[in-house]
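Section handout, structural biology tutorial.
Before the tutorial, make sure you can parse a SMILES string by hand: atoms, branches in parentheses, ring closures as digits. In the record below the ligand is fe (ii) ion, and the chain has 247 residues. In the tutorial you will relate the predicted structure tokens back to the input. Do not try to memorize them.
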Amino acid sequence: MRIGFISDIHGNFTALEAVLADIKKQNVDQLICLGDVVSLGPEPLKVLNALREWKTVNIMGNHDLAILDPEKAAQYEITEHLIPDLYWGREKLSPEDFDFLRSFKNTHEVQFPNGVDILAFHGSPLSTTHLIQATTAPDVLDSYFADRTEYIFIGGHSHIQMHRRYGKKLILNSGSVGNAFVYAFSPGNPPNLLPWAEYAILEQEDNSLHVDMRRVYFDINALVERVKESNLPGAAWWLRQYQDQKK
Ligand SMILES: [Fe+2]
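Predicted structure of the complex:
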């Protein structure tokens, strides 16, 4: 059984298209989206339609909550200069699209045939804004996972791929499809982007478990054109990311 995990697409349909083309070749049985789907990037609607088409299991992210209720953006830890992008994104969405976003789940559990179970979430099982990194202290992890019995934990939110042991368990982050960060976000420092998309596949095959952290290159020139055509309030930041990028 093979399960794909995509996260933090952030309206970057160019990156999502490339990832979905790769996933098509990977024979996944199920695709789970770990949240932050439409805000920030130029093509929110195409992203939502792709998720519908692929019948992904959808987890709620902090940006999804913020686009549903932008007046509470600070509560969802959205930096103030990104708030105009939330309103820009809202104008692209229909009432059905908002209903679709509202249907996203906080967590999702799934089990491989051998009994190994997985818990999916955005930040942590308790909050979309909890940031789990390779350096997060074990006592903080204990507070996030105290009551959880699953063997594998997988989330997004940090925009950085991670494969970390936690006692007998695994904590994974599939990275970001549309907004892969060079370094972890810290308040006051706008992040810089890597010129590729990230996602993960987990597989149980007989008595083995595989974690595949994948990187997919996408058409940066096409994204730049789509950003230029979009009138996104945050367009200048997107364009700066790719000025000097080489794969
Ligand atoms: Fe995100």
